[in-house]
Structure formats: structure tokens, C-alpha cells
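Let us begin with a simple case.
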Amino acid sequence: MTGTGNGFNLTAPADTNSRTLRIYVGGYGVQGELQAYLSDLSAKPFADTSVSNYYDSVYVVYTIRYAAASAGQHLIVNYRSLNLFDEAYGNVTLQSATLSGGPAEPLPFSLVDPRRIGNDFILSFNTQTGFNYTAEFSDSILNPNWNAFATVPGNGGALTVTNYNVPIGPRFYRVRIP
């Protein structure tokens, strides 16, 4: 982005879990300014103007480790040109950003080998450690009333659950991660 005061704005999720945001920025013929703060202002804002070069390009990586005081917050990052040393070509650049940490997100999964044996309905699914899985059924898909029949902790492998004494007729199944 060329022009004094122009630049980039980023937001990243924030809650009480620790996260690390790495921002890869640079500039040519410019002094850049990076500002970062939490939306709930639960930590001191960060500002830096060390990205500065008169006649060449400069590139840096900012590593910001953060956690907010409460859930549902954001880390707000602004990177802009503070002073232009080359009025025609001076600019700030944003190459990339990476975010790590925070709570693990469950991976998508699917039911494996669902089958009825006698009056019982058996289904298997792959799990992840650290998540609980609740298997539920409903006799109607149009107006479902979901009933839990098993809750199991994930172990990183396949788990099998059984819905015992299933009546004849249609029945719908799902597995939730509460």
C-alpha cells in the first residue's frame, strides 16, 4: 500500500486460551507502524515503528503472543505507513500471517459401517482425543426430537456405539461433539 497512513488491518480470535500470531510485513522507502491491541483492552496495547528504510526494502516478522480476559474477543492489528521517504514508491507490505494455539477444533468425521444386527443398531466413527462424542437418534427427520443413547470420550481411534432394542421402522442417527 502506498501513501502516508495507508496500510492493513487484521483481526484474530481471542479468548482466555493462549495464541500466537506471526505477521510477516515489510516496506520500501517508508517507516511502518504496527499497532496491536485486544478488543476488551485487557492487556497493554503494543506499538512499534522499527520497520524503516530510506533506499531499500526491509522485511520483519512480528510474533505476538496473547490471551484475552474473556471469551468472544479479538486481537486487532493495524500496520500502516507512518512516514514516506520515497513519495513515488514508498509502501508497506503484508506478506502473510499465521495463527497457532487456542482450543483445538474437531476434525470432520463420518459414520463408518453402520449396521443393524437383530434389534440393535451399531455404528462406528473415528474420534480425536480431547473431545466427547454423543450419539443420538430421532424417529423423524422433518421434526427431529434427538435422543442421546451414548456419550463416549474420543481416544484418537475408531469407537463403536450401540443403540439397543431399536423398533422396526425408520430411525435417523447423528453424532455430535457437545
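The second case is a distinct protein. As before, the sequence precedes its C-alpha cells.
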Amino acid sequence: MAAGCQNVSVLSSLGQTGPASAPAKAEIDWRHEAESLGAKYRADPGDPDVAAAYAQALRATGQRAQAVSVLEQASLRQPRNTALLGAYGKALADAGNLEQALDVLNRAHSPDQPDWRILSAQGAVLDQLGRHKEAQGYYAGALKIKPEEPSVLSNLGLSYALAKDLKQAEAMLRHAATLAGADPRVRQNLALVVGLQGRFSEAETIARADLPSDQAAANVAYLRQMLAQQDDLKNIGRPAPARRT
């Protein structure tokens, strides 16, 4: 999703994108997988499943431009493969090519064959473009297909945060965090939104609940940075200290 309130969604998923976009594995495991899949891809670049898996491993190791290139070539070979188009659109968004990502995602499904994952990804891209109301409409569409899906509710909560409705964002994320299948990203997003409201002690408790200590420390540091930015922005133009989204 987006950066910052625009970075509010740094902990989120682009239907899912960002640092937590791939399933939980150690980076070294992803690197080994990228090497193995890279050999398979070079042997048979026309296999769409191999191309998609290889691109996912590339994204997980930070090789976003390479992932885009792999999926671009695969999509050119199979322009009607909606799974490939969806992966390509997400990779483009991950690389910051937002308008192109939206165009590709629009081609990744049709009204008669809607895909909730694609709808959520479209919403995430629209949030990055600052079109929050439109984004929320896409999340609503995704939830009609997949009610109570935690990842969609999490993205919707972040969309409310980006639109500066932190109370609604917190309510949505708290609900998402209670659902079966909610992963740690949902709780980290909740911690972020709670922290942005100045309840830092509560936010820190949530952030530390289910992450390894080093990851929790990184997220807590990010929360502190967000709160510092919030204070700086609110102080602009004011004669005395006072208390971003």
C-alpha cells in the first residue's frame, strides 16, 4: 500500500504489497528459492507457474525490477492469463509504477469473474495514489466476495488512516485482528494506528506481541518516527509547541 500517512501502510500488504508482502520465510530461504526457481525459469521461461513463483521470490529478496521484468515477459506470452496479470500488477505497484499497475490490474479480471485479491490490490494502489474513497469502494467489493477477510479489512483500515479517520481505522483493524487467519501484519497495522493517536504504550505492547525481538524493535522504532513526524507537522506555523496523518 501507500507510503507514509503516506507511510502509514509500510507494515501492510498490497493485496498484499510492501515489506510483508511474501509468506513468512527467512531471507536466506527466499534467496535459495530465487536461485532454484531462476534456473527453472531460464530452462523454461514459458511456464507461467514458474515465472510467477520466481517473481515472488525476487520480490521477497528486494529485487523488484527483476520481478517486474519476469512477469512482463510472461504476460506478453500469455496475455489472457489473469493470474499472471494479477501478479504483474502487484509487482508493478511494489516497484512504484502505480498508474501502470492500475492499468494491468484492471485487465486482470472482469465483472463476470471478479477476484477479491485483485480488487484488494486495486484498492491498495488507489490508496497510494491518494484516491481513498475509490480505494474503499474496491475493498467493499472484495469483502462482498470474501466477507471478513482479515487482509482486506486491514487494508481498509489503513485506507481510513490515510484518509485521516483514525477512529474508524482503529475499529476496523481491531475487528480484523480478532478473525481467524489474521496474521501479524494486521496487529502491526493496529499498533501503528494506535500509536498515531498518541497512545504509544498501548501501541508498543501490540507491536511486541507476536514478532521476534529484532522485528518488534524495528516496528517500535518506526512508530516512534511516525509520532515524531506527527508532532513536527502539527507544530508548523504555531508559535509554541503543541501536540500526521
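The chain has one domain: 7-235. The chain has a mean pLDDT of 82.
Keep these points in mind for the review questions at the end of the chapter.
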